[in-house]
Amino acid sequence: MNTRLIASSALASVLAMGLLSTVNAADEKGKEKCYGVAKAGANDCANLSGTHSCAGQSKNAMGADEWNYVATGTCEKMGGKTADEAKAAMKK
Q: How far apart are CA 74 and CA 84, in angstroms?
Protein backbone atom coordinates (compact mmCIF):
# COMPACT_ATOMS: atom_id res chain seq x y z
CA MET A 1 0.00 0.00 0.00
CA ASN A 2 1.05 3.53 -0.57
CA THR A 3 1.76 5.09 2.87
CA ARG A 4 1.31 8.57 1.46
CA LEU A 5 -2.23 7.70 0.36
CA ILE A 6 -3.04 6.25 3.77
CA ALA A 7 -1.68 9.30 5.57
CA SER A 8 -3.60 11.76 3.37
CA SER A 9 -6.81 9.77 3.77
CA ALA A 10 -6.41 9.78 7.55
CA LEU A 11 -5.80 13.54 7.56
CA ALA A 12 -8.84 14.16 5.38
CA SER A 13 -10.99 12.10 7.76
CA VAL A 14 -9.81 14.05 10.79
CA LEU A 15 -10.46 17.37 9.07
CA ALA A 16 -13.94 16.27 7.99
CA MET A 17 -14.84 15.25 11.55
CA GLY A 18 -13.76 18.68 12.77
CA LEU A 19 -16.01 20.37 10.25
CA LEU A 20 -18.99 18.24 11.27
CA SER A 21 -18.68 19.16 14.93
CA THR A 22 -18.60 22.85 13.97
CA VAL A 23 -21.83 22.46 12.01
CA ASN A 24 -23.57 20.79 14.97
CA ALA A 25 -22.48 23.56 17.32
CA ALA A 26 -23.93 26.14 14.95
CA ASP A 27 -27.23 24.27 14.81
CA GLU A 28 -27.59 24.43 18.61
CA LYS A 29 -27.40 28.23 18.84
CA GLY A 30 -30.78 29.69 19.61
CA LYS A 31 -32.02 26.38 21.00
CA GLU A 32 -32.51 24.94 24.46
CA LYS A 33 -33.06 21.49 25.92
CA CYS A 34 -36.72 20.91 26.69
CA TYR A 35 -37.58 17.92 28.89
CA GLY A 36 -40.86 16.03 28.75
CA VAL A 37 -41.73 16.79 25.13
CA ALA A 38 -39.89 14.04 23.22
CA LYS A 39 -41.96 11.42 21.45
CA ALA A 40 -41.02 7.76 21.77
CA GLY A 41 -37.93 7.10 19.65
CA ALA A 42 -37.51 10.79 18.85
CA ASN A 43 -35.36 12.14 21.71
CA ASP A 44 -32.24 14.14 20.89
CA CYS A 45 -29.68 12.48 23.16
CA ALA A 46 -29.05 10.72 26.50
CA ASN A 47 -31.73 11.01 29.16
CA LEU A 48 -31.40 12.24 32.74
CA SER A 49 -32.00 8.85 34.35
CA GLY A 50 -29.12 7.24 32.43
CA THR A 51 -31.07 4.33 30.95
CA HIS A 52 -29.69 5.14 27.48
CA SER A 53 -27.02 7.35 26.02
CA CYS A 54 -28.09 8.03 22.48
CA ALA A 55 -30.65 9.82 20.35
CA GLY A 56 -33.75 7.96 19.27
CA GLN A 57 -33.71 5.45 22.12
CA SER A 58 -36.56 6.75 24.29
CA LYS A 59 -39.20 4.11 24.93
CA ASN A 60 -42.04 6.31 26.21
CA ALA A 61 -43.55 9.44 24.73
CA MET A 62 -43.23 12.58 26.84
CA GLY A 63 -40.96 10.94 29.43
CA ALA A 64 -39.93 13.46 32.10
CA ASP A 65 -36.25 12.59 31.61
CA GLU A 66 -36.24 12.69 27.78
CA TRP A 67 -35.53 15.90 25.87
CA ASN A 68 -35.47 17.61 22.50
CA TYR A 69 -33.83 20.79 21.33
CA VAL A 70 -36.45 23.48 20.77
CA ALA A 71 -36.22 27.14 19.84
CA THR A 72 -35.23 29.25 22.84
CA GLY A 73 -38.30 30.48 24.69
CA THR A 74 -40.74 27.85 23.36
CA CYS A 75 -40.23 25.05 25.88
CA GLU A 76 -42.63 26.37 28.51
CA LYS A 77 -45.29 27.01 25.85
CA MET A 78 -45.01 23.34 24.82
CA GLY A 79 -45.51 22.17 28.39
CA GLY A 80 -41.86 21.19 28.82
CA LYS A 81 -39.42 21.63 31.67
CA THR A 82 -35.85 22.80 32.19
CA ALA A 83 -33.23 20.27 33.34
CA ASP A 84 -33.60 21.36 36.97
CA GLU A 85 -37.40 21.12 36.84
CA ALA A 86 -37.18 17.67 35.21
CA LYS A 87 -34.74 16.43 37.89
CA ALA A 88 -37.07 17.67 40.62
CA ALA A 89 -40.05 15.95 38.97
CA MET A 90 -38.15 12.67 38.75
CA LYS A 91 -37.42 12.70 42.52
CA LYS A 92 -41.13 12.86 43.39
A: 17
Q: Is there a domain that residue 81 lies in? A: yes
Q: Is the pTM of this model over 0.85?
A: no
Residue (of 35, 30, 36) closest to 73 by Cα position: 30
Q: Which of 5, 69, 8 is nearest to 37 (CA)?
A: 69
Judge contact between 60 and 52, C-beta under 8 A. no
Domain containing 34 equals 29-91
- 14: pLDDT confidence band, cut at 50, 70 and 90? low
Q: Is residue 6 part of a domain?
A: no
Q: What is the largest CA-CA distance in the chain?
A: 62
What is residue 31's predicted lDDT score, i.e. its pLDDT?
A: 94
Q: Which comes out higher in pLDDT, residue 22 or 40? A: 40
C-alpha–C-alpha distance, residues 39 and 36, integer Å: 9
